[in-house]
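Entry 14. Ran structure prediction on the chain below.
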Amino acid sequence: MKKVINRSIIMVAMCTALLSNAHEGSSFIPKKEKEIVKTIVTINDVKEGQSLTIKDLNGLILYKELIKESGLYSKAFDLTELPNGDYMFELEKDLEIKSIPFNVISNKVTFFKDKETSIYKPYVIMKGHYIYVNKLALQGEPLDIKIYYDGNELIYSEVIKDVKTIGKAYKLLKFATSDYKVVLTSNNRTYYENFTL
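Output, structure tokens:
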């Protein structure tokens, strides 16, 4: 009987300790989880194969996605976790790159739609023994053209600037069959095209 009473007293003491601890613990209110603030990016008329990137001002790519379906693109991004600084969304189309700058300061994201820019990529076509280089340069930005023969021998170099529409044709010698590389630099970007004649 003494054992039963001792056990009962121990059980009552344990239950009392548990209840008192449970009561003390109930006054603790856990901190609310930080609400995630998402930015929804919506772009009309995208095409499959275009790409969307987020870059910092040094050109470091923080995010890149290949568009998988043509039509309306819409996606939510949590940009508040980015370090304080200036960034940009870039949508790269076949011949155009649209940039929308934004910044993050103390987890607050601000877009600058009025500073949205478009640059146009140069493009190259080879027909027969001719290389055609074209570019829309609305700001008169220069286009540096270099043509290499057999992979690494520079055979032609030219910088075109202060014109809004660039259209050039370069004739290759018929007997000079080989691999050609055209390197085009404009708007701090370089583009490469390779051909075999």
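The chain is about 15% helix and 50% strand. Will compare against last week's run tomorrow.
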